[in-house]
């Protein structure tokens, strides 16, 4: 017979492992939430958050099935642990009239938070109606904002009908968005899917985005972004927009990969757009690979002459330098004759654009391409013929 002797220190080691792997669990029902769709569950949610965030060990927050009205919730860190899971089975619903807030649900200053499952409904309809009628409307709310945070996973979330953007990732790093479904009507104004800005290490995969504006948009300071297996449309497509407010000093955009995406019936496909204004920013190392276009109005676009209403910028030249942008295996149909348009800055021409295996048709015939101030190289088959 053998006796196994576990040294005392090892025994305590096992004990400490098992205690850190058990989750402290908090259910919003225990804090007074009611799944009736109208009693404000903001306080119960914030109390559960405070408990989870204040827990010295990994914690979970449960939002059970049913419909919970939440007026507004700011889930703020820093927390005492770096492993909080928010498990959502039900639906969180926003105020129905447009709210005075600019962010409905927010994660801020957190690290190591996962949001798993669930539906959030921004109920943007009356806000859109205000905008569409041309009345003066409040600024509107982003449904879900991730601000100044690290290591956040959003998985399996459904976001419906935001007043403005569905999801905004700002000042953050290590953010993974996977398996999300974002839906708003095609004619809903500014209901962008996911907007990324001043953030690094953002991955968006296996998601479906149907909105009235951009599917995924990237603003200044977006670096190391990976977008894969995302289907877009209706909406405005995937874009980088330089100089959101036309400000002169912008953080650059670098190392962006967009891979295996399908765009259906969108206004644009993959687009880089900058204001026609002086600027010190840049866009480089952008890869578009395995992109399928189905009846997209402007499949491949670089437009450096953005000047809405022709005010404050006519006849100026964009200072944003665009280089090393590659397009590989981009195929499908264009809804307009010009499928490829590279309209770059006269003072900062686009350089190192790369095209490989492009086939875009218009009404089953080769489409056209247009180049201005654009330089680069091609390989493989290129339809429409390159103008680089
Ligand atoms: C580019 O970004 C990806 C993540 O999207 C990352 O894995 C890779 O290391 C980055 N490349 C460089 C050169 O920083
Ligand atoms: C811009 O340039 C066009 C053509 O060169 C010219 O007709 C127009 O007057 C200019 N506009 C301004 C505001 O300078």
UniProtKB/TrEMBL annotation:
It comes from the Eukaryota. The keyword ATP-binding does not apply. InterPro entries: Glyco_hydro_28, PbH1, Pectin_lyas_fold, Pectin_lyase_fold/virulence. SUPFAM superfamilies: Pectin lyase-like. Transmembrane segments: none annotated. Residues 1-24 form the signal peptide. It is found in: Secreted, Cell wall. The keyword Secreted applies. SMART domains: PbH1. The active site is at 236. GO terms for molecular function: galacturan 1,4-alpha-galacturonidase activity; polygalacturonase activity. May function in depolymerizing pectin during pollen development, germination, and tube growth. Acts as an exo-polygalacturonase. Belongs to the glycosyl hydrolase 28 family. This is Exopolygalacturonase.
């Amino acid at each position: 017979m053998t006796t196994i002797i576990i040294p005392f220190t090892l025994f305590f080691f096992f004990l400490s492992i098992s205690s850190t792997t058990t989750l402290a669990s908090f259910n919003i029902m225990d804090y007074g939430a009611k799944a009736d769709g109208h009693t404000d569950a903001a306080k119960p949610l914030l109390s559960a958050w405070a408990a989870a965030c204040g827990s010295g060990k990994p914690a979970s927050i449960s939002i059970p099935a049913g419909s919970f009205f939440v007026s507004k919730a700011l889930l703020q860190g820093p927390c005492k642990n770096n492993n909080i899971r928010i498990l959502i089975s039900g639906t969180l619903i926003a105020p129905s009239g447009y709210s005075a807030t600019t962010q409905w649900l927010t994660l801020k200053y957190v690290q190591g938070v996962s949001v798993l499952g669930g539906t959030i409904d921004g109920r943007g309809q009356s806000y859109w109606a205000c905008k569409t009628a041309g009345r003066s409307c409040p600024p509107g709310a982003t449904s879900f904002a991730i601000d100044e945070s690290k290591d956040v996973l959003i998985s399996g979330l459904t976001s419906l009908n935001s007043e403005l953007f569905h999801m905004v990732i700002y000042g953050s790093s290590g953010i993974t968005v996977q398996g999300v479904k974002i839906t708003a009507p095609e004619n809903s104004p500014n209901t962008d899917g996911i907007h990324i800005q001043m953030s690094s290490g953002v991955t968006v995969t296996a998601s479906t985005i149907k909105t009235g504006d951009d599917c995924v948009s990237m603003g200044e300071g977006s670096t190391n972004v990976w977008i894969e297996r995302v289907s877009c449309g209706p909406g405005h497509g995937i874009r980088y927009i330089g100089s959101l407010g036309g400000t002169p000093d912008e953080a650059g955009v670098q190392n962006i990969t967009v891979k295996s995406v399908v765009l259906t019936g969108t206004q644009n496909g993959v687009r880089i757009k900058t204001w026609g204004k002086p600027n010190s920013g840049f866009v480089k190392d952008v890869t578009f690979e395995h992109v399928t276009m189905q009846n997209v109005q402007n499949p491949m676009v670089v437009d450096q002459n953005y000047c809405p209403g022709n005010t404050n910028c006519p006849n100026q030249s964009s200072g944003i330098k665009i280089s090393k942008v590659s397009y590989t295996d981009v195929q499908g149909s264009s809804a307009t004759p010009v499928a490829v348009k590279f309209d770059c800055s006269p003072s900062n021409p686009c350089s190192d654009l790369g095209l490989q295996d492009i086939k875009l048709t218009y009404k089953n015939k080769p489409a056209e391409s247009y180049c201005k101030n654009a330089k680069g190289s091609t390989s493989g088959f290129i339809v429409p013929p390159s103008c680089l």
